[in-house]
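Reviewer comment 2.1 asked that we show a complete input and output for one of the modelled complexes. We chose the aspartic acid case, as it is the one discussed in the main text.
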Amino acid sequence: MKVFKFGGASVKDADSVRNVLSVLKKVGYHNTLVVVSAMGKTTNALEVVIKQYIDKNPDLKQTITELRTNHKAILTDLFEGSNHPISETINAIFDDLSLLLDRNKSPKYDYIYDQVVSYGEIISTTILSAYFDFKGITNEWLDARTLIKTDSTYRDAKVDWKETQAAILNNINKKSLTITQGFIGADTNNFTTTLGREGSDYSAGIFAYCLNAESVSIWKDVPGVLNGDPRVFEDTKLLNQISYEEAIELAFYGASVIHPKTLQPLQQKEIPLYVKSFLNPEGSGTAVSKGQTLEPFIPCFIVKKNQVLISLSSLDFSFIVEENISEVFSLFHKYQIKVDLIQNSAISFSVCVDNKFGHLDKLITELKANFKVSYEENVSLYTIRHFNNEAATTLEAGKEILLKQLGTETYQIVTKQ
Ligand code: ADP
Ligand code: ASP
Ligand code: MG
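Response of the prediction step:
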């Protein structure tokens, strides 16, 4: 069985949805599980809905109406203006979202977030499944919340592998074409959970692992994994082959073309991951599999923007020792601060972190009780894997460097902006 994943960019409008079907027709769609994300930037729009709901902002209704209108326009285009029942189905899902918000009693932000944001994937997959049927491609739509079982860490749920494996094997017919959602799952109370932003790649990895799939293909708007994000770096080159270990490193350092959690389950069962272009499905793409570290073996450039550089020193001129550091890390854990880079000296300790859950202010307040704290927001963390002098010099040109760190394989700088 094969697992395919189509992300937001590949289903952003009616033409894109038609293209997904044409990709499937070209490469074959039997014995296939298709994991789909929310359409285009729907998840971002739903994040606005959540914020407006929490803030009791009266624009909330209008934001939902806009989302409804956008999806309706896609439906009209896809179903050629026919009176297809899908319009009613999608309307009912949007009504359900409004009802959920009206009835919600929970004050818990992360819980509400997951209940709301998951509508993006439910809607996109419902549309795709109906469209495939409309075009004569029989398929089965499954709710990923009955398959991906997690704990209740809303917005960053951890997979219960045993329960998930059982649910997947009991419910997925390996012989047919199945359509399901990326990103979402459910906890033991059947409340919706999510696996973290951009988590649909990870969903594909989970399904593949549990199904012992023959391969996973993630269909992107780039020819494959390049040696840098083409939106940021010039003259990028396609990487033909990457080992699991190397791909895990690249994703960990922030090569956002693959979600970092995707690869470990695949590596365990040696399931190859193909990163391919939905615009050129016959192109060779990139294979992540057992074998050569990197082919071609060239420096790879990665950037993480909007990071925060925090520097700590003690209030009483003492050294920063293990005890302080363990206290600092327990605070990072408490506030879900993801640490990207660490540098310490006798009297100071610097970390570059990702404030993706928005808890930085609380962290800084608590740190200030015991340390002298300085921090700079909106810094960028650049990484070069397999660096050489030329690559480092080119990268450094014109940048204001706040911190630099070199390893044997990896070069990193933190810069302003
Ligand atoms: P989707 O969510 O539609 O699956 P993403 O937007 O998450 O896709 O991933 C594709 C994007 O990843 C590309 O448009 C590209 O800008 C970015 N990207 C970042 N690093 C790389 C890289 N090393 N190679 C290719 N694309 C990259
Ligand atoms: N729709 C979710 C997001 O935008 C998950 C994904 O696309 O991978 O984060
Ligand atoms: Mg994405």
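Residues 60-78 form the longest helix (19 residues). We note this here for comparison with the apo prediction described in Section 3.2.
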